[in-house]
Amino acid sequence: MFEWFSKDENDAIHILTTDHDIVKQLFDQFEDADGPASKRRISRQAINELKVHAAIEEEIFYPALRQQIVEKDVMNEADEEHHVAKVLIAELDRMDGTEDHFDAKFTVLAENVRHHIMEEEGDMFPRARSLDIDFLKLGQQILRRKQQLKVIEGGKALRKRSAKPGSKRTSRAPRKRKAA
Ligand SMILES: [Fe+2]
Q1: Which of 11, 112, 165, 170 lies 20 to 30 Å from 5 when distance is taken between CA atoms?
Q2: For position 53, what pLDDT does the model report?
């Protein structure tokens, strides 16, 4: 195994690398999926994972590295790769999966993220490991924030589904409550 990798599940870099493995698996599954329904399901899952992952890197991991100045170029490039991914994710979020370009757009997102992962694991993480950072403490912060974000993203996805025409509740109006 690589020197920068830790087997400790609470280690920040271990957590991020595990996220990478999950999204890479989802990208592979998307490529192998036959029908549009399974492609839609897999892409939705990958996008939710990516949203949470990008947020914890931007809010917690990158700032910790920047404090000790890991090559500015490396960090700036990571920011820009996140930016491109977010643009594609926002467009995919507005699609329902039946569009002509849906598969192509998701494939470009996957290519962009695979490249980003290669740079993080091949360059950023090994550099980070040599810094004076408590990666276990950082890992705890990441795990806490991840839980919060998963609840938020889960709620958003639920609202989106119930707002779709044909779903049981299309109106934003609250349900009527029975008098106590
Ligand atoms: Fe990452």
Answers
A1: 112
A2: 96
Residue 170 Cα to ligand 1 midpoint, Å, equals 36
Could you count the other beta carbons within 10 Å of the beta carbon of residue 162? 13
Residue 57 C-alpha from the chain's centroid? 9
Which residues have CB less than 5 Å away from ligand 1 (the ion)?
Answer: 120
Summarised one tens digit per residue, pLDDT across range 96-146 is 888 889 999 999 999 999 999 999 999 999 999 989 999 999 999 999 999
Q: Using the mean position of ligand 1's atoms as its centre, give its distance from the Cα of residue 23 in Å.
A: 10
Lowest mean pLDDT among 81-85, 95-99, 167-171: 167-171
Q: How far is the centre of ligand 1, averaged over its atoms, from the C-alpha of 74 (Å)? A: 13
Report the 10 Å Cβ neighbour count for 154.
Answer: 12
For residue 133, the CA-to-ligand 1 centroid distance in Å is 18
Cα–Cα distance between 166 and 156 in angstroms, integer?
18
How many angstroms separate the alpha carbon of residue 152 from the centre of ligand 1? 20
Torsion of CA 155, 159, 161, 165, to 10 degrees: 180
pLDDT computed for residue 69 by the predictor: 75
- The answer to whether 64 and 55 are in contact (CB under 8 A) is no
The alpha carbon of 36 and the centre of ligand 1 are apart by a number of angstroms equal to 27
